[in-house]
Amino acid sequence: MDSINWEINRIKDILPEEFFNLIDDNRNRIIKTFPVTVSNCVDLQITAAFIAKNIQIEKEKTGYYFYVRNIETNNLIGYLGVKKIDYNISKCEIFYFIDTDFEGKGIISKSVSEIIDFCFGELKMNKIFICTSKINFGSQQIALKNGFVHEGTLREEFKNHEGVLEDVNYYGLLKSDYEK
């Protein structure tokens, strides 16, 4: 396993060009699971507007965005976020992907762990959930490795890039289980 020096950056430190490049390099692989992101990164102008919108979402505290950067090359190699935040019941969803060239190196799993700390610590959440495609075994393994429990399947919960509703696996992590 190659050792990669990486860090997590926040949205204020991201340039539209580098985010566009990350999405463009992984477009065919992530289009099924990140259709909104992919559709908002078709060119630099649309990508810049997408990042500006997400900066506003962070200001409103309704979502948070994180980017994994390879320190040696300064390139973005991953994207994570927090969405569907319900402060009333202290619950949120996290999402993530890693550039295909960096899969299997433990980077995204460790990054998810840092986002979990952010959700339970800074956001004071009680529960974090992850919804994954039923065929995305890598994402399922990351959820399990980080202590999430497979709570079930949500039927026709996610609209893919073709507009088709798909079932998703639902994984949950309670703060009380995480602290054990």
Summarize the structure.
The protein has 180 residues and is of the alpha+beta class. It is built from six helices and seven strands; from the N terminus they run E-H-H-H-E-E-E-H-E-H-E-E-H. Strands 1-2-3-4-5-7-6 form a seven-stranded mixed sheet, with helices on both faces.
Question: What features would you describe in this structure?
Answer:
The protein has 180 residues and is an alpha+beta fold. It is built from 6 helices and 7 strands, in the order E-H-H-H-E-E-E-H-E-H-E-E-H. Strands 1-2-3-4-5-7-6 form a 7-stranded mixed sheet, sandwiched between helices. A hairpin with a 5-residue loop joins strand 2 and strand 3. The mean pLDDT is 95.
Strand order of the largest sheet: 1-2-3-4-5-7-6
Helicity level:
25-40%
Count of strand segments: 7
The biggest beta sheet is recorded as: 7 strands, mixed
> Poorly predicted ranges (pLDDT <50, ≥5 residues)?
none
Which structural category do the helix and sheet elements fall into?
alpha+beta
Please count the helical segments.
6
Q: What would the average pLDDT be, to the nearest integer?
A: 95
Query: In percent terms, what proportion of residues is strand?
Result: 25-35%
Q: What is the helix/strand order?
A: EHHHEEEHEHEEH
Radius of gyration equals: 16 Å
Overall morphology: globular
Terminus-to-terminus distance: 30 Å
Write down the oligomeric state.
single chain
